[in-house]
Amino acid sequence: MILCIGEILAPEQLERVRSALDSGSFEDGRKTAGWHARLVKNNEQMQVADEAAQALRTEVEMALTGHPVFQMAVRPAKMTPILFSRYRDGMTYGNHVDDPVMGRGPGRLRTDISFTLFLDDPDSYDGGELVTDTTAGEQSYKLPAGSVVIYPSSTLHRVDPVTRGQRRVAIGWIQSTIRDPAQREVLFDLDTARRQLFDREGKTAEFDLLTKSLANLQRFWAEV
User: Which one, of 113, 114, 75, lies nearest residue 217 by Cα?
Assistant: First the structure.
């Protein structure tokens, strides 16, 4: 399941994040790429030790994990530290697939879901589309600032070259409590349906049955 979610960050949060990025320290993005991805990666990333980066990671992570649709779609167990990437002056990231396992020690996780949170208005730069290669063909994403796209980490994808302006994004990877993407989609659809029913009719017997089924399916499938 590939899903776009809008308004993860409010306008005032976006301004704060962009201001911090303007004054932040960046380094070659190939530093965090696997040996084969380094061959096609040409971008910059905010230095992990940057004080502003640490505060930004906390704020963005809270905004993501606090969003109900993000929670429903991802069901996170673990998340990598968020990275802030910058593309400008023809920078690009060619076709690649994300590493299946990231981190070390207790922070080590299986990457089930990748996300890209767009931080700049799409009309402020040219190019920079996130392109995923799916069974339905290539799909392109260039979302409004503050919006996120989530997609399976097993997906082959790329970032097209930026030809004007700069593209700044927050990216990260998640290990879900539900490993199988088809099962995550079933739970997402069921959760969406029960919430819509509740909004329309309140806590009915039908809502309770859907809630029971949702909870029991998670018991069957969850890895904790």
Answer: 75
The type of residue at 91 is: M
Cβ-count burial 19-45 (b if 16+ within 10 Å, e if not) = ebbeebebeebbebbeeebeeebbbbb
Give the global pTM.
0.94
Of 138, 113, 136, 126, nearest in space to 3 by CA: 113
199 is in an annotated binding site: no
Residue 30 counted as an annotated binding residue: no
CA-to-CA distance for 96 and 92, rounded, in angstroms? 12
Angle value at C-alpha 116, between 112 and 121, nearest 5 degrees: 165
pLDDT in tens, 164-190: 999 999 999 999 999 999 999 999 999
Q: Say whether 129 sits in a helix, a strand or coil.
A: coil
* C-beta separation of 167 from 120 below 8 A: yes
Residue 119: count of CB within 10 angstroms of its CB: 24
List b or e across 54-93, with b for residues whose CB sees 16 or more CB atoms inside 10 angstroms: eebbebbbebbeebebbebbbbbbbbbebbbbbbbeebbb
- 98 carries a ligand binding annotation: yes
Q: How far is CA 220 from the centre of its chain?
A: 26
Helix axes 51-65, 11-22, angle to 10 degrees: 160
